[in-house]
Amino acid sequence: MKVFTALYDRVLRWAGHPRASWMLAGLSFAESSFFPVPPDVMLAPMCMARPRRAMRLATLTTLASVAGGVLGYLIGLLGLELVLPLIEEAGYAPAYETARGWFVDWGFWVVLVAGFSPIPYKIFTIAAGAMAIAWLPFLLASLLGRGARFYLVAAVLGWGGPRMEPWLRRYMERIGWFSVIVLLALVVYLSR
């Protein structure tokens, strides 16, 4: 059963939609505060299909993601009591507690690394708000971390362009399952 190839085909169709940029911005915004699907799934095929627009798409993704991060920060700052049961129900409670501990030790650097890494960024935006970390460093770290990640994706796939598509399609199942294994290992590690 080819789970990831079917998803890949669907995302490629979405990436070709006339309003794909709006969909990408909406996904980027939502993922930073409450939605589980990372924007890379749309950004990558859009950059591959339109290499000349790759940097513009990375900028859009970064700005929308940081705006969503601001919403996550406000959720943590103003409404943590309402959101905490949802975090626990989704299984993110151990990751949230780990994030809180990291903020005490490393502050700015935690947001920077979380913005770049596959760790669910929304956990860190909410934790940053809950701990009321300084606003400007949070914003700067978010811009740098998210920007580095999305510009890297855009640069690699924009450089590869349409000629990368056959290679990506051939290895999509392996890439997908490898990503799931890495994410599960990360969740297990963070919940210890």
Q: How would you characterize the overall build of this protein?
A:
This protein is mainly alpha-helical. It has one domain (45-190). 81% of the residues lie in helices and 0% in strands. It contains 9 helices and no strands. It has helices spanning 3-15, 20-31, 40-49, 54-89, 93-106, 108-116, 121-130, 135-160, 165-190. Helix 1 (3-15) crosses helix 9, helix 2 packs parallel to helix 4 (54-89) and helix 5 (93-106) packs across helix 6 (108-116). The radius of gyration is 17 Å and the shape is globular. The two termini are 32 Å apart. The mean pLDDT is 84. The chain crosses the membrane at residues 57-79, 99-116, 123-144, 175-191. Pfam families: VTT_dom (PF09335). Keywords: Membrane, Transmembrane, Transmembrane helix.
